[in-house]
Amino acid sequence: MRGPESKRLQILTPPPHLPNSQLLLLPPPAFPDIPLTLTSSPPTNISPLVTKIDRYILLLFLRTVFICFCSISGIFVVFHAFTSMDELVKQGQEQDGLVLVMCRFYGPYLLLLFDWTGAIITLMAFLFTVGWLRRTGELTSTLAAGISHGRLLRPMIIASLLIVLAQLSSRELLLPSYRDALSMKAKDITGESEQPILAQYDKVNRVLIDGKSLIAQSGRVIEPSFRLDGEYPGYGDLLLARSGVWMEASADHPGGYLLDGVQRPEDIDALPSVGIASRPILYSSSDQAWLKPRQCFFATTVHVDLLQTNQSATRMASVMELIGRVKNPAVHSSLSLQVLLHERIIRPALDFSLILLGLPLVVNRRGRNLFVMIAAAMGTVLAFFVIKTLCGALGGNGYWLSPAMAAWLPLIILGPLAYLRYRDVQLV
């Protein structure tokens, strides 16, 4: 510690214009007692997580995906609109105009097209993006700087995973609400046209649910005809009505069909409600105040969606709905439906595996032409779907494979192969 009593002096060199005999004798400066701390400056050799080249490649890749999807969507809309232009123009004159009618009609189809082709478009975008970088010489200069293919492809792989997750969200949250619109023709865009009905047998209540036709969007059955095989005293063996509509469960009743204009049995208003044990099945207006005369309510777990002949409505159901159908004891759960359930669960992993299978084609060590790489990628996609379709057919028909094994076997085969190809690209 330096104090004022220190006798040490500091000798300073005189300026050049002073004689050597004149020396300036000054006391040393006083320094405060501040502890000495060492501060380390942040290292400057740490690279950011997202570099400029990452943003450039990511923007180029996403733009390629968007262009490819717009091209496929445009081809689909143009060809379909030419075959249905008369109906669309007629609907446009009656409603809000041709443009809004086409948006309302083709919007759900674009979601379905994205669900079908998202993984394939992503794989093609990989090839086009890397091909463009190679053609402009940017890939060569980047590799010459010591950046590996794995580091170069990382932003596109992450973007591909996000695209697969976007497909999953669309498939589970958006498509189920548009499945009725996707099953309609252009002339039926209002959703009020009648469709054939697929009879379903309620195994729990022992009732065959049938009718003349079905309006799926409003859940209405035209001229329902329910065959009663169970013990329902006074109701006979047949329940006929003018119309029936599906009603969700409420405080007054469980889910089921409200039949209006009951024609048989004729004395429906005098019959009491009946059921099995303490569970009512057929409700009548004699003891149910919320029912009007000539009305009857049939409680069942056979939803109106199960009455559609168009199987695409089942394929566009969400995973939770498929689980509910498989566990529903009132309807028969086919092997193909169980295979579909497991396929929907592993679909994101399979789509991402398909993208990773094409990575060696993107690296293109042999210097093959872009069109040759595209052909090889299409061959990879074809082999992927052949394996998936073959396993699904074997499981759906009960040959050799159970439904669960038939759905998971493609991932068991292709998943490790996709990972090996991904690791192979990381080392190049």
From TrEMBL:
Membrane topology category: Multi-pass membrane protein
Pfam families per the UniProt record, alphabetical: LptF_LptG
UniProt entry tagged with the keyword Transcription regulation: no
Chief place of localization: membrane
Annotated keywords: Cell membrane, Membrane, Transmembrane, Transmembrane helix
Annotated GO CC locations: ATP-binding cassette (ABC) transporter complex
Protein name per Swiss-Prot or TrEMBL: Putative permease YjgP/YjgQ family protein
Species for this entry: Rubripirellula lacrimiformis
Residue ranges crossing the lipid bilayer per the database entry: 56-82, 109-132, 370-387, 399-420
InterPro entries attached to this UniProt entry: LptG/LptF_permease
Localization of this protein: Cell membrane
Domain of life per record: Bacteria
GO biological-process terms attached to the record: lipopolysaccharide transport
